[in-house]
Amino acid sequence: MAPEEMESLIRLLSDDGYEVVGPTRREGAIVYDRLQGLNDLPAGWGDEHGPGHYRLHQRDDQALFGYVVGPHSWKKYLFPPRETLVRVLRREDGGFETQPGEPAPPRRAFIGVRPCELAAIGIQDRVFLEQSVRDRAYGARREGVFLVAVNCAEPGGTCFCTSMGTGPRAHAGFDLGLTEVIGVGMHFLVIEAGSEAGEAMLVRLDHRDASEAERAAAERIWQEAPKHMGRTMPGDAREVLAGALEHPRWAQTAERCLSCANCTLVCPTCFCAQMEELPDLEGNASERVRLWDSCFNGEHSYMIGGPHRSTVAARYRQWLTHKLSTWHTQFGSSGCVGCGRCITWCPVGIDITEEVAAIRATAQGKAGGQGT
């Protein structure tokens, strides 16, 4: 499919009643926002990732998806930073009635979903939809989302999705999957359908069967991309962390950690939240609001008598051991998809792959106890 056919895809999705969301360039970053057409995509722009470092740069081609990931994740649309769950109103007879907190969400189409982000959406589906209590607000937003995945050709400096088994090629969980192929004298998209909805959309697009050479070009991308991961996560991270609750590395890392919560805010799977009750001054109405929270905030672990995790070391340990170890027990998988955002947007450049490797190398931890 020609790259210009993305204009048709965006238009068709919009005509079908979807709010089309995808990558665009704004304020020095690739962010997710509403797309009106092909010109909104960040053609010709790439990004650089390192610990505490992110910069855009112009490419020497017109790649539509030549970046890795930005500070936004799709989480902000499915599990928004702030949402009113319910409103309670006092009736004239003195009784109360409840109303939905938010209007019915729009049907959305996500364009440019990386394989690691598909995995993150799958993880949040398990968290919010497959537990004993189903989150109705999340379910309403998740239902009917049309997913256009884009396979990664150039992993970034903080990527380690290969270690987590989440990329750089998507194999399932999408409606349409794209691989952008750019070379001398060629620029095209290899497109595949991953669902009935994707097949129905594909027949409406101007495309043709890929030639053997075009398939081979896409295959080379799929084979080469895993070799260029910027980071590697030790395969036994779960066991390493489970046996390292008293490791001195936690205190050492805490000397650098600002407890700013950046890592949890950019993470596509973190789901910590707090509830606020917001009554009006006359006592006639109240709202229950859910807000993003973070295990790095001291008040998040508050119990009778004070915060349970009062030190930065304890909070960092909680985040990392939950993400990579105890999440397996709770939800059946790791909570990390290897997108590298937590490394890139850490102001002091703390690298979770480096932390796990350091603990693994010294193996001084002892299971049990609360320590720090």
Give the secondary structure arrangement, pairings included.
Layout lengths: L5 H10 L3 E8 L2 E6 L10 E6 L2 E6 L16 H4 L3 E9 L5 E5 L7 E6 L1 H15 L6 H7 L3 E5 L10 H4 L11 E8 L2 E8 L2 H7 L9 H13 L12 H6 L6 H6 L7 H5 L6 E7 L5 E8 L9 E2 L2 E2 L4 H20 L9 H4 L7 H11 L10
Parallel strand pairs: 1-7, 7-8, 8-9
Antiparallel strand pairs: 1-2, 3-4, 5-6, 5-12, 9-10, 11-12, 13-14
How does this structure look, described?
This protein is α+β, with helices and mostly antiparallel strands and 372 residues long. Helix content is 30%, strand content 23%. It is built from 13 helices and 14 strands. The protein has helices at 6-15, 75-78, 115-129, 136-142, 161-164, 196-202, 212-224, 237-242, 249-254, 262-266, 312-331, 341-344, 352-362, and strands at 19-26, 29-34, 45-50, 53-58, 82-90, 96-100, 108-113, 146-150, 176-183, 186-193, 273-279, 285-292, 302-303, 306-307. The chain has a six-stranded mixed β-sheet with strand order 2-1-7-8-9-10. A four-stranded antiparallel β-sheet has the order 6-5-12-11, with no helix packed on it. It has a two-stranded antiparallel sheet with strand order 3-4. A hairpin with a 2-residue loop joins strand 13 and strand 14 (306-307). It starts with 5 loop residues before the first helix and ends in a 10-residue tail after the last helix.
